[in-house]
Design brief:
Blueprint (H helix, E strand, L loop, with lengths): L1 H9 L12 H7 L40 H12 L8 H17 L3 H14 L6 H21 L3 H14 L4 H15 L2 H14 L4 H10 L3 H8 L17 H25 L3 H18 L14 H36 L4 H9 L5 H11 L6 H23 L2 H7 L26 E6 L6 E7 L4 H18 L4 E17 L5 E18 L16 E2 H12 L11
Antiparallel strand pairs: 1-2, 2-4, 3-4, 3-5
Helix pairs in contact: 2-3, 3-4, 4-5, 4-6, 5-6, 6-7, 6-8, 7-8, 8-9, 8-18, 9-10, 10-11, 11-12, 12-13, 12-14, 13-14, 14-16, 16-17, 19-20
């Protein structure tokens, strides 16, 4: 870099002074500013003749969170008027207009949001392009569905959200967004649980959310059955990419404690006190196993710096998981008391003091209201208010404009379609793009991985699913069960020998599925009651092969 700078100065050239950072682009749709080298969304807005990574504030194609609200609307206005938004960057203009609609939605301005969505549609120069339709186009319709729901047009909103989900049936994020909008439109908790079940078929990491809903619906036996389907594991991706596996492991320990506490409560709520207490003992043992002591390396008397940091992290993780189980233990014992000692002073104190409405506290209050406890009448009076608070809070958890932004599909073009080829990427490959198939850490399952530097996250996941369906069909299996799903956002970081980061840039995505290939008519014994999880491999292939195995359509001007 010094050599280039010296050469420029030697020829009498000077570098232009850095312009003020155009932060309003990022404040609008989350992508940095464009310049003549790229739109910042599909192509990096590289610096200095397009040879160097984007300067601060300019887009490197990665979307980052932006605050929604009045300031965001003003930021969008500035971005849309900026001359750096060249006419050829029409997809970025569509993104900015759609983002302004979401800021409008956040402020409760449905009419303004619908007007911005109309402007976004009008700005599309190739609305019939299949890749535009299944990405930016579908995103516009998802936002429209959310706006319609906000405007009170619930039936129209639910119908549109369902149609969007059907347009891209193997995109878990679109399915999640459609599910959330449908729930906002209907408020039907049973329908939400059924839709979550459909989502869990495609995205097994949503099983804990389904368990939450079954618990809220008092379907305790179903929650217990679902718990054994949840996979909590740490898998390091191939290709030399660094992953903070210790952080994932810590999250899994705490998440496992919460799930196991839930199941202990489900056992108590179904009058199985001994089993509930045993489940809590097993849960605490699992926490201990997940946070083992850190010993010095062989030949060393003391822990290294990294080992001390790991010891501290494990201690914090164990404390967090223990607090979770302590809370569940309190609720389990209260629920048992309703059956065994309804006159208990602890139940009286609970009725008198409880002000926080959750699915669990509401269930305990309901159980007391239907018991012979002295405070039965007071508990019954408390229930309607608790349920109302619970429902209101639940709406916020299930859906928000911020969640909608995270779930919208990235912009896609024919140029972003990866190359589909049967087989695995070579160990000797000069890049880390392609397929990789190997035995999974789960007995009997296969890990199917796809990596790509240019494709969107959804494309990478669909390619992995297509490959899994292809392998299943080759093996004569008409079904597959997705046991685990992992998606990594890759970043290439350049640092000095002392660890100081010089620069970083987005480098695509990795998608992994742990898949069990099955005969739908004869499921394995340990999955015999999971017919609802089986995915039709012929249907997956028919839906995705035409997109990823056929030659892409002619490229359109997108950059």
């Amino acid at each position: 870099m010094r050599g280039i700078f010296a050469a420029l100065c030697a020829f009498g050239m000077t570098l232009p002074a850095a312009a003020a950072t155009p932060a309003y682009f990022s404040a609008c749709d989350g992508y940095g500013a464009p310049n003549k080298n790229g739109d910042g969304m599909l192509k990096p807005a590289n610096a200095l003749f397009g040879l160097f990574i984007p300067s601060p504030g300019y887009g490197d194609t990665r979307q980052r969170p932006s605050a929604l609200g009045e300031a965001g609307i003003a930021a969008c206005d500035q971005a849309l008027a900026d001359p750096r938004l060249l006419p050829i960057y029409w997809m970025r203009r569509v993104s900015l207009l759609r983002a302004r609609a979401i800021h409008d939605l956040n402020r409760g301005r449905a009419d303004d949001a619908l007007a911005d969505l109309k402007h976004a549609m009008d700005a599309a120069q190739a609305p019939a392009d299949p890749y535009y339709r299944r990405s930016l186009g579908l995103g516009i319709e998802l936002v429209r569905a959310a706006v319609l729901e906000k405007a009170g047009k619930t039936e129209e909103a639910a119908q549109l959200a369902s149609e969007v989900g059907a347009e891209r049936p193997y995109d878990a994020e679109i399915a999640r967004a459609a599910l959330a909008i449908n729930y906002r439109a209907s408020g039907d908790r049973k329908a939400l649980a059924e839709n979550l079940r459909k989502l869990a078929k495609l995205d097994p990491t949503s099983l804990p959310g389904l368990i939450e809903q079954e618990m809220a619906l008092d379907q305790f036996d179903e929650a217990i059955r679902l718990r054994r389907m949840v996979v909590l594991q740490v898998v390091k991706p191939d290709g030399g990419w660094q992953t903070d596996t210790a952080a994932i492991d810590a999250q899994n320990v705490v998440k496992g404690a919460h799930l196991d506490g839930q199941i202990a409560y489900a056992l108590a709520a179904t009058h199985r006190a001994d089993a509930a207490r045993k489940a809590l003992v097993a849960a605490r043992a699992a926490v201990d196993a997940g946070c083992p002591p850190v010993d010095p390396s062989p030949g060393r008397a003391r822990l290294s710096r990294q080992q001390r940091e790991l010891e501290i992290r494990r201690g914090d993780t164990k404390d967090s998981a223990t607090r979770v189980l302590d809370e569940w233990t309190k609720y389990v014992e209260l629920r048992i008391l309703v059956d065994t000692d309804p006159n208990s002073e602890r139940l009286h104190d609970f009725v008198a003091a409880t002000r926080i409405a959750s699915a669990t506290t509401t269930d305990i209050m309901r159980a007391i209201a239907h018991s012979t406890a002295p405070d039965q009448a007071i508990a019954a009076l408390n229930l309607p208010a608790m349920q109302a608070v619970l429902d209101k809070e639940h709406e916020k958890i299930v859906f928000s404009p911020e969640l909608l932004v995270r779930l919208l599909p990235e912009t896609e073009t024919a140029a972003r379609v990866g190359r589909y080829a049967a087989g695995s990427k070579s160990f000797w490959s000069l890049n880390t793009n392609g397929f990789y198939v190997k035995p999974a850490s789960i007995a009997g399952a296969t890990t199917v991985e796809y990596d790509d530097v240019q494709s969107s996250a959804a494309m990478v996941e669909e390619m992995a699913l297509l490959r899994a369906a292809d392998l299943a069909r080759q093996a004569g299996k008409k079904g597959m069960i997705l046991l685990d799903r992992r998606r990594y956002e890759r970043t290439l970081t350049v640092s000095t020998m002392y660890g100081a980061i010089q620069n970083s840039r987005p480098t695509g995505y990795t998608a992994e599925y742990d898949v069990l290939f099955v005969d739908p008519a004869k499921l394995p014994a340990d999955h015999a009651d999971e017919a609802w999880r089986v995915i039709d491999t012929d249907a997956v292939y028919a839906s995705l092969a035409s997109i990823y195995t056929a030659p892409p359509v002619a490229k359109i001007a997108a950059h």
